[in-house]
Amino acid sequence: MEDINLFLAHAVELEREAARRYEELADSMRTDGNVAVEAFFRQMAVFSRKHLALAVERGGFRQIPALTAEAYQWPDGISPEQFDWIGVDCMIDVNNALAIALDGERRGHAFYAVIACSTGDPEVRVMAREFAAEEAEHVAELEKWIGRYATQSSTRPADPTSEPAGRA
Ligand code: ZN
Fold first, then answer.
1. How far is the CA of 63 from the centre of ligand 1 (A)?
2. What is the pLDDT of residue 106?
3. How confident is the model at residue 168 (pLDDT cuts 50, 70, 90)?
4. d(CA 125, ligand 1 centre) in Å
5. pLDDT-derived band of residue 56, with 50, 70 and 90 as boundaries?
6. Distance between terminal CA atoms of the chain?
7. For residue 119, what is the DSSP state?
8. 41 belongs to a structural domain
9. What is the pLDDT of residues 116-144, one digit of tens each?
10. Is 139 part of any domain?
11. Cα(155)–Cα(157) distance, integer angstroms
12. What pLDDT sits at residue 51?
């Protein structure tokens, strides 16, 4: 990707998707009664919207083109449309919600990291690097939350009806 405006148009779409995903996940946590994770997701939604706006403003970019669906150049597996889910199941539990969030952050990171390595445009490279670093922080943050909940669930008494672990 060699054009900063084209790059930013993709970033707008990715961040919009991220914010939407976090809002949906936050709503699902409210029904699940998980206040801490709900608050975390809401904060991440705000960050998604703010980070992009700040980056665009700081760069002095004003003319981010509105692209048609065919004009986007998403690498395989990263296009937000491919992940246009049917909506989060209202019965989703906290571990699944965190896993969905982590998946989104990893895709975002991969998208920016690949562009940072492959672009010949210095402006795009700087910004893609910065965005990739931001997404790497989000991945690390999600992994922390996942670790926290994994510890909690492993201290619960084992379900006697489940299969023994490690046997196929
Ligand atoms: Zn992110």
1. 23
2. 92
3. very low
4. 18
5. confident
6. 45
7. -
8. yes
9. 999 999 999 999 999 999 999 999 999 99
10. yes
11. 6
12. 79
Instruction: Output the CA 33–ligand 1 centroid distance in Å.
Output: 24
- Report how far apart, in Å, the C-alpha atoms of 39 and of each of 27, 88, 123 are: 10, 17, 35
Instruction: Write out the residues surrounding ion ligand 1, Cβ under 5 A.
Output: 105, 135, 138
Q: Which domain holds residue 83?
A: 4-61+77-154
**Is 162 part of a structural domain of the chain?**
no
Q: How many domains, in total, are found in the chain?
A: 1
At 98, which CATH number? 1.20.1260.10
Does 71 fall in a domain?
A: no
- The one-character DSSP state at 106 is H
Q: Give the DSSP per-residue string, 122-165.
A: HHHHHHHHHHHHHHHHHHHHHHHHHHHHHHHHHTSPPPTTSPPT
Residues 72-80, mean pLDDT to the nearest whole number: 75
